[in-house]
Automatic annotation (TrEMBL):
<dbReference type="InterPro" id="IPR036390">
    <property type="entry name" value="WH_DNA-bd_sf"/>
</dbReference>
<dbReference type="Pfam" id="PF03466">
    <property type="entry name" value="LysR_substrate"/>
</dbReference>
<comment type="similarity">
    <text>Belongs to the LysR transcriptional regulatory family.</text>
</comment>
<keyword id="KW-0238">DNA-binding</keyword>
<feature type="domain" description="HTH lysR-type">
    <location>
        <begin position="1"/>
        <end position="58"/>
    </location>
</feature>
<dbReference type="GO" id="GO:0003700">
    <property type="term" value="F:DNA-binding transcription factor activity"/>
</dbReference>
<dbReference type="Pfam" id="PF00126">
    <property type="entry name" value="HTH_1"/>
</dbReference>
<dbReference type="InterPro" id="IPR000847">
    <property type="entry name" value="LysR_HTH_N"/>
</dbReference>
<dbReference type="GO" id="GO:0010628">
    <property type="term" value="P:positive regulation of gene expression"/>
</dbReference>
<dbReference type="InterPro" id="IPR036388">
    <property type="entry name" value="WH-like_DNA-bd_sf"/>
</dbReference>
<dbReference type="InterPro" id="IPR005119">
    <property type="entry name" value="LysR_subst-bd"/>
</dbReference>
<keyword id="KW-0805">Transcription regulation</keyword>
<protein>
    <recommendedName>
        <fullName>HTH lysR-type domain-containing protein</fullName>
    </recommendedName>
</protein>
<dbReference type="GO" id="GO:0043565">
    <property type="term" value="F:sequence-specific DNA binding"/>
</dbReference>
<keyword id="KW-0804">Transcription</keyword>
Amino acid sequence: MEIRQLEAFAAVVTTGSVTAAGRLLGRSQPAITRLIQELEGELGFALFTRSGPRVSPTEQGFLLYDEVEQTLAGLQQIRSRAAALARGDGRPLRIAATPALSAGLLPAALALAFGRGLCAPGRVEVRSVSPEQVVHAVLTGAAEIGLNSLPLEHRGVNVHWIGQAACVAALRADDPLADGETVRLADCRERRIVTMQNPYRLRRRTDAAFAAAGIGPAGVIDTNTSINALTLVRAGLGIAVLEPVTARGLPLTDIAVRPVDADIPFYFGVITPQARPASAVVLGLVEVLAEASATLLPDFVRRDPAEHGALLQSLYGDGAAPTDNTESLSHD
């Protein structure tokens, strides 16, 4: 299996045709076809189904593409790093964050860091990934610092602080409920609610609040990102109850953000690998992120990492009381 075969495969998946893939890679159509056939022969299964000039990945092709995409991205990172070393550049600061935190909080924090000379512009790499992938990036060294939603149980990471802020409602500015300072969930019983999918994080808390307010699951639209929720609200499809970072850090035109009358806490924090000491730049950014959080979120509370076990218990009940695995989560 060769890199050029994987590049041809990824290019065909991306463009949808062998001809377009050849143009993208600067190779002839027969050359791309030959590379794909060689790869299929080595793998022992078909990667594409063909319909005239168009091709579509098979189910096995789709599954393989996820791995190939990561491999090619890693290769591109190596090439970029090698070019930077040739120019005499130092190591870039690599950050992994969830979509909400990378869009709603990280830009303001980096602006402060650049303004204070904590890190050099052009030497920062930001990846927006799922909470689980944030942890993986920190553990494997793909990122020096992670900005993640909590709770989090994993060996090998340091949690520097726990941030807490209340979830909010996002609704169209012309919605009658936007006239008040606070949105009562009970007033949303006849309205469609937009909320997050992941049942093990924020969704568990919002579901409990909806049940207490008499809001059933039939009136809910699930989505996987807060920015999706905001755009659904702007289209008039419902009221979103979501974490406050995106709602306040990435405001959209015609969207009003209001507190809700239910106690739905959102927890997030900054993590670094336990196996490698954090640099002065990383430690500086840790503090800047807390400062930016306090500026963005009017009810922001910075908690000590030692409270993590108690937070787990309060969120998930007695069954989540600190265990050996919970206590293995290291902190400053």
